[in-house]
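We emphasize that the prediction below concerns an isolated chain of 351 residues; any contacts that depend on oligomerization or on bound cofactors are therefore not represented. The input was used exactly as deposited, without trimming of termini.
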Amino acid sequence: MLLKSVTKTRWTITADRITIRPYGRLYIDSIMIALVGIGVFIWLYHFSDFAKTDHGKAPLLVAFGILFFLIVTLGYANTLIEFDHQSGIMRKKLWGFATVSKIPFSELQEISKVGAKDIYGESYAYRIFKKDNRFGPGFVISRNYRKKENSNAIAFTKEVVPAIHNSLRQHHKTLYDVAPPVMLSYYYFVYENGSYLLKSKKIGIVILGAFFILLGTSFFTVIPQSPIAAIIVGTLFFFFGFFCITAVFTKVIFSKAAQTIERTGMIGYLNKHYHFEDFIGIETVRIYTNFIYTRTAVNLRFNKPGKPGQADILTIASLRTSKQLEQFVHEFYQITGLNNDEIKQNIQSFH
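Result of the prediction step, given as a C-alpha cell string:
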C-alpha cells in the first residue's frame, strides 16, 4: 500500500498555490536501480576477475555510477509543477527546488487528457499546453494511467483540474486564442462533387503495395529449404501489400450539406458512416516506438446511436509535428463547420 500511494499523482491545494508531484513512479525505478546496482557491485567484488587484476577499481566505479543514476532518478521523482495564484506563473521545479520552466498563465490553455500508445499498451495522462504549441509534448501534470476508472485520476479531475482552470481564468479571461483566420485553400483536404475528401499519397502507397505483393509472390515461386516458413512469410508480405493497395481506394468524405462523415473502400465491413450531431470531439494519441515519440494519431469520436455512454472512433490522420496537427485540426473544423464553442470545449477535453 505504501508503494502504491507513493506512485500516485500527489497534490496540495492552498489559497495561494497548487503544487503537483506527477513523477512518483520514479521512486519504484530508484529502488530497482539500487537493487541492480548492489547486485552488480557484489558480483564484481566477490566473483569477477576484475577485482583481482589491474582493473580492481571496477566495483568502485560501478558503485559511483549507480549512485549517480540513483540520485538523479530520486531527484527527478521529486520534481513538482507549481501554479502560483498570486504571480500568475506556472513553474516546473526539478528536484523540487530548481526552476527549469516558468510560464505566465496567459500563455497556457486548458488541461487536456492525452492518450499514448507504447509497447505496454495504451495509457493516458493529463498535460497542460502553451497556446502557441497546442499539440506538442506539453507539460505532464499527472502520472500515466492504464485503467480508465483509476481512482487517483478521477480525484485529480474533480479536485485539481477545476482549481487550475479557475486560477487561469482569474488571470486571463479566456483559455483559448482568438479564432484563426478563414482559409481559402487546404493542404490536407480536396474539394470534389460538393464534398471534401481527405488527401492521400496514392502513388507512394501503390508503389509500396506493389513491392510487397511481388515480394510475397516471390516466396511462392522459389524452392526454399523450409517451405512452411516461406508460405507464412510470403502470405504476410502479400496481404500487407494488398492492404496498402486497398488503402488507395479508401476515401474519407466530409459532407457539410448532408452533415455526414463517411469512410468508404473496397472492404465493405470497414466502411463507416457518421452524422455531425453524434460528433463528440477530436482525440489525439501520441505513438511511441521503443519509448521514442514517432507520430500522433488523430481520431474523431462519435456517440453510438442507441448506446448511451459508448463512443466510436474513426482514425483519419497520422501526423508528427505540432504545426502539422494544428493545421489539420484548423482545416477540419473549417470544412465541417463544427467549430462552435461547445465543440471547441470538447476538443480540449479529449486532446
